[in-house]
Amino acid sequence: MGPPFLRLRKLYAVVHPKIKYEAPPPISEDHRRHHHQQQHWLKKTNHNTDPNGWRCVDRCCWMIGYTCTVWWVALLLYGSLLHADVTPDQSPGSRLRREGLGPLHPVIMVPGIANGGLELWEGRPCSEGLFRKRIWGGNFAEIFKRPRCWLEHMSLDNETGLDPEGIRVRAVPGLVAADYFTPGYFVWAILIKNLARIGYEGKNMHMTAYDWRLSFQNTEVTVIPNFVYGSLKSKIELMVRSNGNKKVVVVPHSMGVLYFLHFLKWVEAPPPLGGGGGSQWCAKHIKAIMNISPTFLGVPKAVSGIFSAEAKDIAFARAMAPGILDSGILGLRALEHIMRVSQTWDSIISLLPKGGETIWGNLDWSPEQGYPCDPTKKRFLKSSLTDKFGLANSSDHGKLGLGAEETVHYGRIISFGKMASELPSSKLSMINYKDFPIDNPTQGRSSSEQVWTEYNEMNFDSIRTIVENKVYTTKTILDLFRSVAPKLMRRADAHFSHGIADDLDDPKYSHYKYWSNPLETK
C-alpha cells in the first residue's frame, strides 16, 4: 500500500461588494411635529401608569367590583342569619290564621267617594290612546300630559248629571279598583291582604265598582237599567249560594255607607224604581254591615267644597304649595277648573249636612256648645289659663282672661270673618236667598279666558250681598246654593234630601231621593 496521499482544498477568495451609503433625507417640519406629539402622549400616559402597569381606570374598576362583592356577601350572610331565626308575621290576618280562624262569611267592600278607579271607554279625539286606561286613580299622568282633555272627560253633563254625549267613563272592576289610590297610597289594600292571609280569595271577596261621580240612582241608568245595583244584587246572591248559603258581611267606607244604604232600599223596592227583591231580601242575604267612617249625617267640608272648591284637602294642598292652584300652571287656572268640574258631580251633594238646624245647630246654639271638640286643645287651654290667670278650677277652662266666655257658634257652618262667627245673632243682618235674582253675566265676567261656572250667571251686586250676610247655617246654606248654583241644586233636589221626616209612614218617603238619608227612611 502506498504512502498516504494528502489532498489540499482549494482556497477561494471572497470579495465583498462595496455598499454605497447615502445620507438620510432631511426630516420635514411636519414629521418632527408629529413625532413630538407622540412623545408627549407617551409621556402623559406613562405618568398615570405605575411600574406594574396599572392605570387609574383599572384601579377604580377593581375597587367597584371589590365593594359590590363584599356588599353581596354581607347581604347573603344577613339573609341567612335572618331566616335562621324567623319572627312570626304579626299582622292581624296572620295572627287570626294561627289561632285557627278561616273564611266564613263572604265579604263585600264598598269604596267611598274618589276611592274607586275610573277608566275611559269612549272619548273625544284628544283622548287618543286612552281606551280602557285609567283617568282617575293610578299615577294621574294624563293630568299633566293633557289637562284640559282630562277635565273635559271627568266632567258630567250639567243638565242630566250623566256623561256628556260621546264620552263613556266607567268604573274599574275587581279588587284593583280601590286597593291603591295612587302608587304607595293604599286604601283597601291592607284589608284585602289581611283577609287573604285568613284564607279569603276572589270567590268570597268582592269590591263593589261604581262611578262615584253620579247620583246613586243614576248609577242604574248609566248603560242599561239595573246596571250597577242589579249587578251587586246578583253578585251577593251568587256569593251566598256558592259559599254554602252563608250570608255576606258588607264593609262600606265613607260615602259608600250612603251608597249601600240607598241600595238596601232599592233592592227591596218594587220595579221599575227598585230591584224587586221583596221585603225579606236583606234578611236572607246580609249577615252584618260594618261601616268605616260613615257619613250618615253628612260632613261640613262638603259645603266649602261645593261653595268654593276649597275643601280640607284642597286647603291643605294650597298651604303646602301656595299660589300653585291660583296660577296659570299647565295653561289653566286650576282652582276654577276644580270648582267647575266638582259642581257637576252629583254625589258630592249626598255629603251635605243632613238634619238641618235640629242636628247641626242654628245661629246661637249647637249640640257641641260647651264641649271642646279637641281634647288636646282643651288640655292646652286649661294649662295655659291656669299659668296665666290662676284659673285652677276645671269649670273655668272655657273662659278667657277676665271671665269672658269663649264664644264658639258651631251652628254657623260658614262665617265670613272671625268677628261674624262670634257676634250674637241679634247683630247679624239676614236676607232671604230665595229672592235672589239669577242675573246674566256682566261683561267683565264673561271673558273667554275665564272658566265658566254657575257663579258667572250672577252679577257682582249679588255676590257682594252674599258676602255681606256673613253667616250661614245648614238650613240657609241650601237656600244659598239654590241661588248661586241653580242647575246643581235642581239635580240635587231630584236625587237627595237633607231634612228630617215628620212622619215616616207618609207615602212620599218611598221616593228614591229619601233612601240615602237615614233621617227620612225606615
Automatic annotation (TrEMBL):
Question: Which Gene3D superfamilies does the record cross-reference, listed alphabetically?
Answer: alpha/beta hydrolase (3.40.50.1820)
One GO term in the molecular function aspect is: O-acyltransferase activity
Q: Does the keyword Transport apply?
A: no
Biological process, per Gene Ontology? lipid metabolic process
Q: Where are the transmembrane segments?
A: none
Q: Which keywords does UniProt give here?
A: Acyltransferase, Transferase
Known Pfam families for this protein? LCAT (PF02450)
Q: Which domain of life is it from?
A: Eukaryota
Task: State the name under which the record lists this protein.
Answer: Phospholipid:diacylglycerol acyltransferase 2
